[in-house]
Specification:
By secondary structure, the protein is of the alpha+beta class. The protein is built from 9 helices and 11 strands. The protein folds into 2 domains: about 5-170, Ribosomal Protein S5, domain 2; about 180-310, GHMP kinase, C-terminal domain (Alpha-Beta Plaits). It has helices spanning about 70-85, 110-125, 130-145, 150-160, 190-205, 205-230, 235-250, 255-265, 290-300, and strands at about 5-15, 25-40, 50-55, 60-65, 90-100, 160-165, 170, 180-185, 270-275, 280-285, 305-310. Bound molecules: (3R)-3-hydroxy-3-methyl-5-(phosphonooxy)pentanoic acid. (3R)-3-hydroxy-3-methyl-5-(phosphonooxy)pentanoic acid binds near residues 18 and 106.
Amino acid sequence: MPAMNQSACGKAILLGEHAVVHGEGAIAIPLSNKRVKVHVEPKILAPDSKIHVIAPDLDINQELSDLPKQNPIFQAVRLTLSELNITQTPSCKLLVTSTLAFSSGLGSSAALAVATTKALSEFLGHPLPVETVNRIAYECETYIHGNPSGIDNTVVSYEKPLYFQKSQGFEFLHPGGTFNFVLADSGTSKSTQESVASVAQQLVERPMEGQAILTQIGQVVEQGKQAFLDGDTKTLAIAMNHNQQLLAALELSSPGLDQLIKTAREAGALAAKLTGGGRGGHMLALVEDSKLPLVYESLQQASSDRAFIAIVRNQG
Ligand code: PMV
């Protein structure tokens, strides 16, 4: 059984995080240059069904069976074996490396689940179709987030920009122009499960106000979707900035994120907002070509070198 390598990208939500959990639409793009990589190789002399996991970025170097049940690698292996009806696995080693930051709004748990499912199923000689990989990754997400919308596993599985709505499924979005984004890490990692729970709590404590904000986010997403399709950077920027105000009204921003957003706007970004779970993690800025070097440099400085550029291209 030869060794196998697979990988999965990270993702950024352009518009609609959190509201998407409550049924509104949202738009996400893949981050193809930030990836989780999984290498699987046989361990010839080890007893059967022993899977050893090494993931230096996650401080993991142990048997799979000793990982916590909420670990995406654990769940992805379990669900992949169950999908393939395999009870006795050949012993193997899983090496997980990443250029994607963990727990910071970029879909790392979905990327871990997708990369593990693809690598293991191929290693076992039964590569799974993307629809199945997506379904398994969604199920993994339920163990980690509790109540995921499904947008993260979908964009990471298909690696294309898309519009997602829980009740309708998803549609791929073909950008009508080229959009430049700069992302930067506020340095504080926060649990998505907690931030999703905090929104649910607000809907209990102030239902009218909370629901009104989610509905407005839904409207902003529709406006942004049309702008994305039209290649209309200015209107997309208005939607992103408005979305940030609404997310802040749900207490999902943080002083670190606010500082990065201010830095981006002062350096000339057309828009800046948090992305993903919020209360820490990454921010996302939309930037015209001429301002890209300055915005990138300013965010690099403000985030201790944790900024990067992602470009969504109009494929013509
Ligand atoms: O922080 P991340 O990368 O896990 O993204 C979470 C996105 C949410 O909309 C807040 C949750 C979800 O399941 O859609």
